Amino acid sequence: MTNEELFAKLEAGDESVRELIVVQNRPLITMCVKRFPNFKDPVINYEELFACGEVGLVKAMNAYRLEKGIMFSTYAVKCIANEMRMAIRHFHKHEHTYSLNDLVGEEISFIDTIVDERSNVERDILNRSVLDSAVKALVHLNPREREVMELIIQSRGTIEQWKIAKQIGLSQPQVSRIIRRAQKKLETICR
Fold first, then answer.
1. What is the total count of domains within the chain?
2. Which residues of 20-59 are buried (b: 16+ CB within 10 A; e: fewer)?
3. Residue 112 carries which DSSP code?
4. Cα–Cα distance, 7 to 29 (Å, whole number)
5. What is the residue-averaged pLDDT of the chain?
6. What is the pLDDT of residue 66?
7. Is residue 106 part of a domain?
8. Which of 21, 87, 96, 131 gives the lowest tally of CB atoms within 10 Å of its CB?
9. Range of 156's domain?
């Protein structure tokens, strides 16, 4: 049976042809996966891409209208490819998601690096000595670098570059370059 005949039956109320439509059009998914440039992507594998293609095929089947005069296979290929593109975007967007149990060192996990916010005398002394060293090193920076670094220190490193840029009348890329330059100078001074 052709797709058009199956859809005529489906529109007549025969729901049993749904599975036949999916099975008969699975080769379209395989064709789309092979044509897709990222099917060997390390983030999303062939099976996941194929499963996304099946979702696209079902969506195409649910949205297809025979009276539009378009062949189902043409419409389905567009839906399948679109679903695969959305899946790849989603996987790439979330590929840098980490677990608290992931290792950041040989034996240290992210959860081990979480700092207890209660007062810790050793931490306070270390922070003060680092801050004192940083303040002393700031005198070696030019006035613009010093201004930017002082804003960062005053905010305890929480201020965003665009806010600094707005505050001192520069663009964010300029602030980024100033920070990089100042950090290099401070690294050489503190060695």
1. 2
2. ebeebbeebbeebbeebebbebeebeeebbbebbebbbbe
3. G
4. 19
5. 78
6. 85
7. no
8. 96
9. 121-190
Q: How far apart are CA 27 and CA 53, in angstroms?
A: 10
Same domain, 14 and 83: yes
Q: Assess if residue 66 is contained within a domain.
A: yes
Torsion of CA 13, 15, 20, 26, to 10 degrees: 100
Contact yes or no for 7/72 (Cβ under 8 A): yes
Taking the alpha carbons at both ends of the chain, their separation in whole angstroms is: 78
Domain CATH number, residue 47: 1.20.120.1810
Residue 18 makes CB contacts below 8 A (sequence gap 6+) with 10, 61
Tokens of 5: 């005949």
**How does DSSP classify residue 67?**
G
Q: pLDDT, tens digit, for every residue of 146-160? A: 888 888 878 777 888
Structure token digits, residue 136: 């002393």
Contacts of 102 (CB under 8 A, 6+ apart): 109, 110
Residues of the chain with pLDDT under 70: 36-44, 92-135, 190-191
Beta carbons of 6 and 64 less than 8 angstroms apart: no
CATH of the domain at 163: 1.10.10.10
pLDDT of the residue at 55: 92
129 and 85 housed in the same domain: no
